[in-house]
Amino acid sequence: MPYKKAGKEFKIVDATLILMMVAPLLVAILCKVLFIPQSEGIEITGAHVYFTLNMPVSTLPISESQVNSAAVLISIFFLCLFITHGIRAKVYTKRAVIAEWAVEKVEGLVNENMGTYFAGFAPFIGAILLLSAFSSLISLVGLFAPTSDLNVVAGWAILVFMLITYYKLKCGPWYYVKGFMEPIPLMLPMNILGEVATPVSMTLRHYGNILSGTVISVLLAAALQAASNAIFGNLPGILQNFPLFRIGIPAVLSIYFDLFSGCLQAFIFAMLTMLYVSTAFPMEEYMKRKQIKEKAN
Amino acid sequence: MEIAIGIMLCGCALGAGIAMIAGIGPGIGEGNAVAKACEAIGRQPESKSAVTSTLIMGCALAETTGLYALVIALLLILLAPGRFVDILVAAVK
């Protein structure tokens, strides 16, 4: 196997890519330190607004979740560049193996759940998976997770809803309208409600899971602080405020709420996207119409 | 005025508590799902991985109704009191 030692330029580019991967997170942490005032005690808050921009129609508040999700986006971009850096047709580096494994997994997932017609969806699904997972995992660095903001997840769900509608409209608008009148025209309001419920339920599922993890972690931290205050409250000096119980115990919950739940919700969001889009597309009708059109030509 | 605000806060807290009754549903549902999954694995141990992934997926879907209740309860506790008190004060003025 032809293994060449990495040159100096290669290493410099590598180091730059790693730096660019970490830099957005550092910028986000810096923003948090600079803009958010130090709070007394433990409190549950939504995303803080850093500053507002004056736009023509209305003011545009730039909040914590926007900054953090932008940081995640840039970070993932450079992670992809780093993993595919110096890739060759013949795989002989570790990161090329990782990249190939990830791409193959996502393509396999898409082929398994959506069929070969939707094979082009693999990059989109992979992007959703990575973005959602990393947005939830960013809370491990102490930042506000963008997925625990309703607006961010609602944006993704609306994007998926647009995709669903696009594939439902593939057989013409009349077929789309007729789909709402099944099995009987009386079911029209129920079907419209069910259509609207799709993005709402997707949003609330993802957002509720991440938010509940955050809230429970904060409540537990507060309870442990109160417990250590009650026990060590009579000690003299600095020992009085020493949060002994807050060391380590919340980390056990964090394994479930931050690591497991975050990754699981990302997987479920991607899975539901695949299922909804592939079931929305009337494959048989579309193929029938295509054949008729080809015969006419 | 104080009594009105007190009743309002009491209503918010009670509403949040009542909303969380919805937690019963997902609890029973997920319990059923896990029980069936255990049976399936007991019958066919070689299908463990497939059953487990389907189970996790199904549990996450079944959780949704509970999460709706949670979101409503959080809104009632964190957001609603301030809003309602503001509305009440504005109405009295």
Characterize the structure shown.
The complex is a heterodimer of chains A (297) and B (93). By secondary structure, chain A is mainly alpha-helical. Chain A has helices spanning 8-35, 64-83, 94-114, 122-137, 150-168, 173-180, 188-232, 249-280, 283-296; strands at 49-54, 59-63. Helix content of chain A is 68%, strand content 4%. In chain A, strand 1 (49-54) and strand 2 form a beta hairpin. Chain B is an all-alpha fold and 93 residues long. Chain B has one domain: F1F0 ATP synthase subunit C (F1FO ATP Synthase, Up-down Bundle). Helices cover 88% and strands 0% of the residues of chain B. Chain B has helices at residues 2-19, 24-43, 48-62, 64-92. In chain B, helix 1 runs antiparallel to helix 4 (64-92) and helix 2 (24-43) runs antiparallel to helix 3 (48-62). Classes of the chains: A mainly alpha (297), B mainly alpha (93). At the A-B interface, helix 7 and helix 8 of A face helix 3 and helix 4 of B.
Category from helices, strands and their pairing of chain A: mainly alpha
Helix share bin of chain B: over 70%
CATH first level of chain B? Mainly Alpha
Number of domains of chain B: 1
Give the averaged pLDDT of chain A, no decimals.
86
CATH topology of chain B: F1FO ATP Synthase
Question: Order of strands across the biggest sheet of chain A?
Answer: 1-2
Give me the count of strands of chain B.
0
Within CATH, the superfamily of chain B carries the name F1F0 ATP synthase subunit C
